[in-house]
Hints:
The complex is a heterodimer. Chain A is an all-alpha fold. Chain A has helices at 13-23, 29-47, 50-61, 64-67. Helix content of chain A is 68%, strand content 0%. Chain B is α/β, with parallel strands linked by helices. Among the domains of chain B are: 22-91 and 119-195 and 290-361, FAD/NAD(P)-binding domain, CATH 3.50.50; 421-552, Glutaredoxin. The model of chain B has no long low-confidence stretch (mean pLDDT 94). Chain A binds chain B through residues 30, 33-34, 37-38, 40-42, 45, and chain B through 376-377, 380-381, 383-385, 387-388, 392, 394-395, 398. Bound molecules: ligand 1.
Amino acid sequence: MTTLNTEPNVSVPDDFYQDLIDAHRDLTEAQSALLNARLILLLANHVGDLTTLREALAAARDDLGAVK
Amino acid sequence: MKTYTHPVYEYVGAPDTGGAPRHWPVVVAGAGPVGLTGAIDLGLRGIDVLLVDEDDTVSVGSRAICWSKRTLEILDRLGCGERLVQKGVGWNVGRVFFRDEQVYEFNLLPGEGYRRPAFINLQQYWVEQFLVERLGELPQAELRWRSKVVGVRQEADRIALRISTPDGEYTVHADWLIAADGAHSPIRNMLGLECEGQVFRDRFLIADILMSSGFPAERRFWFDPPFHRNQSALLHRQADDVWRVDFQLGWDADPEEEKRPERIVPRIRAMLGDAAQFEIEWASVYTFQCQRMRSFRHGRTLFAGDAAHLVSPFGARGANSGIQDADNLAWKLELVLAGQAPEALLDSYDSERTEAADENIRHSTRSTDFITPKGAISRTFRDAVLGLAKRYPFARALVNSGRLSLPVTLGESPLNTPDNTGAFGGGPIPGAVAIDAPVAGPRGKWLLGYVDGGFTLLCFGNAVPADALRSLARDAVACAVVQVGGAAASGACLIEDSEGLAAKRYDAMPGTCYLLRPDQHVCARWRAFELGAVRAAIARATGKPAEAARAAA
Ligand SMILES: Cc1cc2nc3c(=O)[nH]c(=O)nc-3n(C[C@H](O)[C@H](O)[C@H](O)COP(=O)(O)OP(=O)(O)OC[C@H]3O[C@@H](n4cnc5c(N)ncnc54)[C@H](O)[C@@H]3O)c2cc1C
């Protein structure tokens, strides 16, 4: 049974996507990487449940091999 | 060194150099904290034990400083915990800094009602000296200095050891050998065995400095501080105004160069400020590893302490876990030597302590990975955690500069009798260490003081009938009964739960019984006493096969 919600859940998807890109504007690559890391940590804490987080990690890693 | 003069222990010509080799029930190789603890425990159990060490003094240089609550409890049982506590310094507050600011502080204050604090700090040589002195009080234990094990032969029913001394070599025989001969374990090599794991590609300058300063007794840890860019640093207080400083140097540092005072002094000045007055007591450069042997038992040889497993010092698990190895092993050897338990009981030493080693290695690897991130992305996450920790409490939980060394719960042990389903909602589970609590009674003010060397049934209220009590006391593997509160039962040691904490910590109701092993780990518990169940649990905890356990019931 999966607990990770992979159905549409963000209220205004286009707004969120734009905010995400905007958040990185004018940042160096290192700053961007740091922002991403902080964001992941903040969101992970919000989710809290380890099972869900592990599913997200697995989903994020899935088929990366093929992308290379 | 100004604050400590290493004792020089005299070599005494061994009485059994000539003639037929003397036979010992147990020989312990290595008088470090682990070998000493094991020999004291065995000596207190009335077992003739020979402890040999190649050197003639205690630990030299900057090694262990943090001794955990569990270590103190074990040494209390062995009669020398108080000396450590008297000499050591207590600390509760830890501060973590990132770059130029404090990101958080923690307080270990364990809550009232425990005899011992979470940690004390004390230089390893003091601890070893106290242990040597304690050992000297035991007629059963003999410690021979400048006596080096140079050969080991496992024979069918004994071990033959070659001992090299200033007077030449001689042989001793033993039923069992405890190899507590340290990280490089010559005995491990002689037996062709290995320690496997990972070496961290980093170097650390570890120095002890003498400084009477106004600094409080707290642990300070810096990530990437202005005085030591891109690396970590640690400051920790020990006894006699000695402070431990620790600088991460990186893999490319030249260890010989870094040990020179001309290099060290400016580093410390940068950390403590120009006004600081200090003298260097000792300095070394270390690399660290996390490794263990696949098995801690090889026939009649039992590996313990650094010989069996190695961790990085972040989290203070080396000596503390080694002392728990000795604590786990001594009572098992006693029972096997007395013919009251099968040799298979010693396999549980292996399974329990490898489980513990794995947990310690896991913790210490995680701390080391946080302190020494491998690769750019690890470092980014590490810095993200530290950056968030100042503002957000959740991130503090992720900061890992070493986790508190707690005793491992031996939850998977075959010696445990599982709980009846749903019987307990709290309290220490089978495999966990018994929890201390303040009590009133004939043998002192602390509960753990009543669990001192044999099996103990801790029961709440007058739960054990007098005839059952007598039977338990007369069994081959005897079991003492300690009764908490209620009308006195004859033969039980009666104590009062003076602050109500014992009942609370053990999730106890009238009739609740906990069976504690000689090393104070819980091995079974029930809501009501039943003689057969207790006997079966003791049979199981002494490694007897299931049929024997059933027969005991
Ligand atoms: C910088 C640093 C900081 C540390 N901090 C902590 C801490 O805060 N808390 C903690 O718990 N641990 C800490 N440790 C780890 C701790 O020092 C070790 O885990 C501990 O000393 C292990 O004890 P031991 O008895 O197994 O081995 P050792 O202390 O190494 O003793 C082995 C003994 O065996 C003897 N020996 C060796 N070969 C032979 C032979 N062939 N024959 C006879 N004798 C022999 C040696 O002379 C030695 O006395 C730290 C270590 C370091 C390096």
